Amino acid sequence: PSVPRHTNRLINEKSPYLLQHAHNPVDWYPWGQEAFDKAKTENKLIFLSVGYSTCHWCHVMEEESFKSKEIGEIMNEHYVCIKVDREERPDVDKVYMTFVQATSGGGGWPMSVWLTPDLKPFAGGTYFPPEDGVHRVGFRTVLLRIAEQWKENKDALLESSQRILEALRHTSEICVQGQESPPAAKEVMDTCFQQLSRSYDEDYGGFSKSPKFPTPVNLNFLFTYWALNRTTPEGARALQMALHTLKMMAHGGIHDHIGQGFHRYSTDQHWHVPHFEKMLYDQGQLAAVYSRAFQISGDEFFADVVRDILLYVSRDLSDQAGGFYSAEDADSYPTTTSGEKQEGAFCVWAAEELRALLPDPVQGATEGTTLGDIFMHHYGVEEAGNVDPMKDPHQELKGKNVLISRCSPELTAARFGLEPVRLSALLQECQQRLSSARAQRPRPHLDTKMLAAWNGLMISGFAQAGAALAEQGYVSRAAQAAAFLRTHLFDPDSGRLLRSCYRGKDNSVEQSTVPIQGFLEDYVFVIQALFDLYEASLEQGWLEWALHLQHMQDKLFWDPKGFAYFSTEGGDPSLLLRLKDDQDGAEPTPNSVSVTNLLRAACYSGHMDWMEKAGKILAAFSERLQKIPITLPEMVRATAVFHHTVKQVIVCGDPQGEDTKDMLRCVRSVFSPNKVLMVADGDSTGFLYRQLPFLASLERKDGKATAYICSNFTCSLPVTSVQELREMLSP
């Protein structure tokens, strides 16, 4: 690479996204006091640009505008320019995204916002093309017009920004209205199910026409709805909707059939052509949801998808110290000599390329059949490419194929006169060969930032998969990652989580000069992960740490007046709003997961005030839960768990004894949305016995491992038969 002409302050940052912009001719500042002081001293407006390193349109805007010397000069002359990595600073992103969505009716990244010197927003949008077009004003024009307005109408702009801020404060407030209590579970569950059912795509699964996101929160809700309504037609439909969606996603192009794992979303109704970036938070949640599908259905297909996701994460998103990286980019160079990156280049195939790689004749198949014929038929490959030009606005995928399972293995086998077992072996051989060929291509950019929240989601994925599939290796990987968090993203002196750390030189793990403190989502997803890890490993140290973090979360984020948790701590003057997220999206909103975390924490500790807090969160969101529960499916699910009372499943026995292991295997193999598992091993000095003295009164029956199912610390009769236990766990 040639020596860069420009270097700005971002060169000193750790975030891969900020470093991508360190050689722009724009005089970028990171979010911080130095930039704020410059804006005030020079009485300049701030231009705030927010994105993330694997965002396709962020790359486009950088290439077109931020690398332009001419546009850079306009930006530097009229503005103090600030770059923010939304994954590093979700607090800053949420404040200004709330503004952009409220004023433009949409949002997304890159986010472009113009602020007064005291950080109040007054204009904003997302991607801007560099020059004026037929339908859009260009970025250069917007920059010059706003600079002119600031010169001519400064007071009007300041007044307008103040009014906007007051309106945002008012509309974004979520608090308890009067004497509200948690809404009734049945009514909220039924409404949410009906709303999801109406938006369900009967043919391809999912809950919209296009684009289609995996949204695990919807699928988890449907599993819980089924578990509580198993004997009704609605319950059966909920299960069918969830399993069909998961099957169609796994067959689709959103699933990487060669490199494993899932891309971020599909641009079409058929789950076919994705945006190719792969996000850690999707892999973690999908590993967990496919594990539940396997628990419920017993269908090995779902277990195979779990193994596929975890293979991808272990191989491509794992740091040698134990943490998980954030994401892989959508864009890469098609060949080692290419000058320009293209979206999907690493993942797509030309038909002639596949023929050349898979020329072997297949013995026993219909005459003249090659490996290529079988593979191309099964995965919908077409000579001229299989991507709809409407889904390829930049013509980057012209003549290329995105692999999608078009046929069942049985149909493909019959077509070529093969046994299904033989077909499976042949497809596997093709996949290995294509994987080796793909390894010769330039890889997409890897975002090696490690975030506490997303690592928490991935630990849950490994832990739940390990429990449901009885795979000890997955539990060990989850424990390794949890130990990584405790070493690198936890400050033992303050007892607080940190947001992020980074892969440094020589594969070391580095921290920013001033570490970013953990946000609500970091606490919530890590606490959930530690509970999942305890249930999979029975190591009480994880439980102890989870309860410590729950106390810390209460102290830092709880709103004693309006109830529920704020997303951020108080006391940061640069954050104009303290918000509470009110929508489950690609990730569940932290308050939704907090309800279940608090109920689990109460069961493991006996602190009933946590149960009370869970009810207060539901009360704060009561109106939204009753009117549009489809926006909060994870919180609706938690409402059901709250009202149905959590089952404490307590196994008394030696954790190493075969009879105890049989019981634990049984508990872990059954999907029950409102159970917590613990083992009473007889060690009265252990953490659990100190938290829950009543455990000492539970005994083994006839010297055998014995299970008790307790509600609010009142226990059932002892059970020593695995079959009987299974029946008690299924509602």
Termini Cα gap: 63 Å
Main sheet record: 5 strands, mixed
Helix fraction?
40-55%
In total, how many domains does the architecture comprise?
4
Structure description:
With 731 residues, this protein is of the alpha+beta class. It has 4 domains: 10-172, Glutaredoxin; 209-235 and 250-258 and 265-315 and 447-644, Glycosyltransferase; 347-441, no CATH class; 648-729. The chain contains 27 helices and 21 strands. It has a 5-stranded mixed β-sheet, with helices on both faces. A 4-stranded mixed β-sheet has the order 19-18-20-21, sandwiched between helices. A 3-stranded antiparallel β-sheet has the order 8-9-12. β16 and β17 (509-510) form a beta hairpin. α17 (452-468) runs parallel beside α19 and α21 (590-605) runs antiparallel to α22. The radius of gyration is 27 Å and the shape is globular. The protein starts with 15 loop residues before the first helix and ends with a helix. The model has no long low-confidence stretch (mean pLDDT 95).
Tags for this model:
731 residues, Glutaredoxin, Glycosyltransferase, five-stranded mixed sheet, four-stranded mixed sheet
